[in-house]
Amino acid sequence: MYILIAFLSPILHALSCIIDAHFSNDVFKKTSTLIFYANISNIIIIPFLFIFGTPSVPSFAVFVILFIVAFIDVFYQLPYYMALRNIDTSIIVALFSLGKITVPVLAFFIVGEKLSLVQYSGFGLILLSSFVLNFDIKKFKLNIAFFLMLLVSIVLSVSSVLQKYTLFDIDFVTLIFWMTILSSIINLSFLVFPISRHDIIAAFPKYVGRFRLFIANELLSQGGSLAIIVALSHLPVLVTQSISASQSIFTLLFGVALYKLFGHRFKENLNPQEVTKKLISFVVIIIGICLVLI
What is the structure's pLDDT at 293? Predict the structure, then answer.
């Protein structure tokens, strides 16, 4: 049963990333405008938090860390949405796996922690597959999306470590509550700059017309996060992380299904040769993640 729950996470997050790509490529021209409206939708989670408990007021030190986490939560989306405009959605999802290698690398340089030969092998497989997915042979250079997602993966890894640190002093209800409140306040900063403010106001009809899709996207994202938390309470970390790594495969499969239903309206190259290359690379990345987590 919990294996099935664990698979809900990559499935729901895959659908959410496809919607993100749709918003970024087809609806909003300015990334700051998309981030503004995407973060407004985060507020819907607050009433549901009280089902699990009442948030408390953290200490000043924890509050500062929560502000940093909230800042990351808003601004990591800039390179993320930019990357979605440069390469296929399923590849972007696969590049989130770069985050799996940033933590041990940082650990090596900061505290001198060394990995085993098997873990270094997994590290290499993830890098090699990510390189293959993003290297343009004709131009003989890496797609800019690789570097954008490397940045995203690093800052999200830092965010994860900081969140874990705060959980020694506060519960998850307090963490999510203040993260949501602070990220919403930070999100308002986009209204300070005239260019961003004018575009946000001009794009309001687009947001209203797609309000249900924004809410659906938020529910998919939060549902996927909740599923992995439930699964982690009954399954080993290696199992849940490996299952989560299958998200890129689900994204590709959903892309094929959506192509059959709506035609070429989503950013996904479904040329048979490209699909084969992606599937092989995605499987190798999953194997690499399993080796790194051993």
Answer: 64
Closest Cα to residue 18, out of 211, 257, 284? 257
Q: Which residues of 266-292 are buried (b: 16+ CB within 10 A; e: fewer)?
A: bbbebeeeebeebeebbebbbbbbbbb
- Whether 123 and 101 have beta carbons less than 8 Å apart is answered as yes
DSSP assignment of 235-254 equals S-HHHHHHHHTTHHHHHHHH
**In contact, 89 and 198? CB cutoff 8 Å:** no
Residues of the chain with pLDDT under 50: none
Cβ(252)–Cβ(87) under 8 Å? no
Task: Note the pLDDT of residue 227.
Answer: 80
Please name which of 89, 98, 103 lies closest in space to residue 128, comparing C-alpha atoms: 98
Alpha-carbon Rg of the chain, whole angstroms?
A: 19
Q: Which residues contact 100 (CB under 8 A, 6 or more apart)?
A: 126, 241, 288, 289, 292, 293
Sign of CA dihedral 209, 212, 213, 218: positive
DSSP class of 52: T
Strand partners, 136: 141
CB atoms within 10 A of CB 165: 12
Helices 2-22 and 237-244, axial angle in degrees (round to 10)? 30
Q: What is the pLDDT of residue 103?
A: 61
Is there a contact between 13 and 183 (Cβ–Cβ < 8 Å)?
no
Write the CB contacts of 229 (distance below 8 Å, at least 6 apart in sequence).
none
pLDDT of res. 137: 60
DSSP letters for 56-93: -PPPHHHHHHHHHHHHHHHHTHHHHHHHHTTS-HHHHH
The closest of 80, 105, 74 to 13, measured between CA atoms, is 80
Q: What is residue 275's predicted lDDT score, i.e. its pLDDT? A: 78
Cβ neighbors of 248 (< 8 A, separation 6 or more) are 14, 90, 91, 93, 94, 97, 278, 282, 285
